[in-house]
Automatic annotation (TrEMBL):
Coiled-coil intervals: none
Residue ranges occupied by any HECT domain in the UniProt entry: 54-82
InterPro entries (alphabetical): HECT_dom, Hect_E3_ubiquitin_ligase
Keywords: Ubl conjugation pathway
GO molecular function term, any single one: ubiquitin-protein transferase activity
PROSITE patterns in the cross-refs: HECT (PS50237)
UniProt protein name: HECT domain-containing protein
Length: 158
């Protein structure tokens, strides 16, 4: 791996595992059928989580349609959906400054396992499509990323 100046970086074993998992997801994503997601911008959290409650969503490439809008998804609408979702999800489901952690108010703790499993699937799908996370804070640190991928059943080399 090279830095911005083109010099070789020292390999970090934890980073290599994460890169291997991401590579596995990306390679798998290229070979699967499509599923159309109809999303309402004003209800993006609920709509996206509803689709991602179903673990089989990871068996499909997604094609996004924003309700009431004209456009064909050639990648931009999917990117827009992930970006908009993570912007709101980071505010609603995570706490922190430079690095965020999952957090729900006490009255929503019963649904936490289902919500964060669905969020893990969103993250997994997003990694399969794009190189960069859609959240502007670093919540994908190694432990969190590997933990979420284990929740949704993705392991390095699978």
């Amino acid at each position: 791996m090279l830095n911005k100046e083109g010099h070789m970086l020292q390999k970090n074993p934890r980073m290599m595992i994460s890169l291997e998992v991401i590579s596995t997801i990306k390679n798998t994503y290229q070979e699967i059928p499509e599923k159309e997601l109809k999303i309402r911008r004003n209800n993006i959290i609920k709509d996206v989580l509803q689709y991602y409650e179903d673990p089989t969503i990871l068996n499909f490439k997604i094609k996004v349609i924003f309700e009431g809008e004209i456009g064909e998804d050639l990648g931009g609408l999917t990117r827009d959906m992930f970006s908009s979702f993570w912007k709101k999800a980071c505010q609603e489901f995570f706490r922190g400054e430079d690095s965020v952690v999952p957090s729900l108010p006490i009255h929503r703790r019963r649904e936490a396992a289902d919500i964060f499993a669905a969020i893990g699937r969103v993250l997994c799908h997003m990694i399969g499509v794009f190189d960069e996370p859609g959240c502007n804070t670093t919540f994908t640190d190694h432990a969190v990323l590997i933990g979420w991928l284990k929740i949704v059943g993705v392991k390095a080399g699978e």
